[in-house]
Design brief:
Length: 372
C-alpha cells in the first residue's frame, strides 16, 4: 500500500513540477475525455488528511496518468537516479490504482469522522458513540477484504481500536448518556451498540451501568431543578431506565437535518429536568485535538519553546518510546538501561544548572525542570 501511495504521489509531483508538464497533462485529459473540477495537489507525507485529498483528486485523473505512459519524458522521470542513487517509485500501474481506490474508500470514513469530532460550532458529544460504532463496522467489513495489504492494515488498526475501546472500565460513561439524550438514538441504540461491540455478558453489564448512571443523574437534577411535577419528564426518565430487554421500542426522531440544541430548546418545557441534564452533558466537547494533529503521523515535537527538558532527557524519552514499541519484548531491556540514562542526565543537569542545586549537608537536592 505504501508503494502505491508513493508512486501516485510521484506522478502528481511530476505533473506539478513544471508548467510544461502541467500543460501536457491537461492535453492528456482532453485526449481521454476526462473532465473534472478537481485539482491535483501535493500532500504532506506526515498528514493523512492531505494524502487522502491528494489520492482522491488523482484518482479522478487515472486515465490521463495512464495516457502519459506513452510520453517518453514521463517514463524517463521515474527511471532517472536521484542524488542518493535511488530511483523514484512509479509510474503507478493498475495494481497501484486499484489499491489506492480501496484505500481512499476506507480512509474516507475516518476523514469524515475526524471532521465531525473536530467541530467547535456544533454539538459533538451526541455523535461520538454512534460514530465509533461505525468505525468498528467499517473495520469488520474490511477484515474480509480480498486485498491482502488492506486486510493487514485493518488488523493493525483493530489492535489500536481495542486498545482504546476494549477496556470498558476506562471509558467515560457520559458519552453514552449524550447518545441517549439524542432523540434519534435514545436507549435502544445504545443497547444495540453494546451488543454489537461486546459479548452478551459484558453488554448487559454495560447496559446496567449506563441505566444506573442515568437514574442517578435524574435523581440529582430532580432535587436541584425547581420545576412543577411533570408527567412528561417522568415518562422520559422511565424510557431511559426501563425496558432493558428491549421489549418496548422507543419512538425515535427521524430528521436528516437534525439540530439537537434546537430540539431541546423546543421541548425543554415538556421535559424540564431531562432538558437540564441535556444542557450540561451536550456542552462537553468530545475532542479538543486539532484536525491536523488527528491525521498527523509526524508525532509531537519538543523544542526550547515548548519544554524545559534537557536534550539528554528528550533523547532518553524518544529512545524509551522506540524500545517500548519495537517488535520484541523490550521492557526488560528498558529497565536495564533507564537507571544508567537517568544517572547520566542527572549528572549533566547538576553541572549545567548550578543555580538549581542546593547542598544540604550530606544530601544534594536538584530542582528538576518542569516536564510536558
Amino acid at each position: 500500500m505504501s508503494y502505491a501511495i508513493s508512486s501516485i504521489r510521484n506522478a502528481v509531483r511530476y505533473v506539478r513540477s513544471l508548467p510544461a508538464r502541467l500543460k501536457r497533462f491537461k492535453e492528456a485529459c482532453k485526449d481521454v475525455n476526462v473532465e473534472s473540477k478537481a485539482l491535483l495537489c501535493l500532500d504532506v507525507v506526515t498528514r493523512w488528511n492531505s494524502t487522502y485529498m491528494m489520492l482522491e483528486a488523482a484518482l479522478k485523473f487515472k486515465k490521463a496518468f495512464r495516457y502519459l505512459e506513452g510520453d517518453a519524458n514521463y517514463t524517463k522521470y521515474f527511471e532517472e537516479e536521484r542524488v542518493n542513487g535511488e530511483k523514484v517509485d512509479g509510474p503507478p500501474d493498475n495494481t497501484d490504482w486499484t489499491n489506492a481506490e480501496v484505500f481512499v474508500k476506507f480512509l474516507k470514513a475516518f476523514y469524515e469522522l475526524t471532521l465531525k469530532f473536530s467541530g467547535s460550532l456544533y454539538v459533538t458529544s451526541n455523535l461520538f458513540f454512534q460514530e465509533i460504532l461505525e468505525v468498528q463496522v467499517e473495520l469488520n467489513d474490511m477484515k474480509s477484504s480480498t486485498n491482502e495489504l488492506m486486510s493487514k492494515m485493518v488488523g493493525s488498526m483493530q489492535l489500536k481500536f481495542d486498545k482504546y475501546w476494549g477496556n470498558v472500565e476506562k471509558i467515560n460513561l457520559l458519552q453514552y448518556i449524550a447518545s441517549i439524550l439524542d432523540p434519534r438514538f435514545k436507549l435502544d441504540a445504545v443497547h444495540n451498540s453494546f451488543r454489537y461491540l461486546y459479548d452478551p455478558i459484558l453488554a448487559e453489564k454495560m447496559i446496567k451501568k449506563v441505566e444506573n448512571m442515568m437514574t442517578t443523574f435524574y435523581a440529582f437534577y430532580k432535587g436541584t431543578v425547581m420545576t412543577p411535577s411533570s408527567s412528561n419528564d417522568q415518562q422520559a426518565s422511565q424510557s431511559v431506565t426501563s425496558n432493558a430487554s428491549g421489549n418496548r421500542k422507543e419512538k425515535l426522531v427521524e430528521d436528516t437535518n437534525f439540530d439537537i440544541l434546537d430540539w431541546w430548546q423546543r421541548n425543554g418545557n415538556k421535559y424540564p429536568i431531562v432538558s437540564h441534564i441535556a444542557r450540561d452533558v451536550l456542552a462537553v466537547q468530545m475532542s479538543t485535538v486539532a484536525f491536523e494533529s488527528a491525521f498527523s503521523t509526524g508525532g509531537r515535537i519538543l523544542d526550547p519553546f515548548r519544554s524545559s527538558l534537557s536534550p539528554k532527557m528528550v533523547e532518553a524519552l524518544i529512545c524509551s518510546k522506540n524500545w517500548l514499541t519495537c517488535e520484541y519484548d523490550a521492557p526488560i531491556v528498558l529497565r536495564q538501561y533507564m537507571d544508567k540514562i537517568e544517572g547520566l542526565v542527572t549528572s549533566e543537569q547538576v553541572e549545567s544548572e548550578e543555580s538549581c542545586v542546593t547542598n544540604t549537608g550530606t544530601e544534594t537536592t536538584v530542582a528538576t525542570p518542569s516536564t510536558l
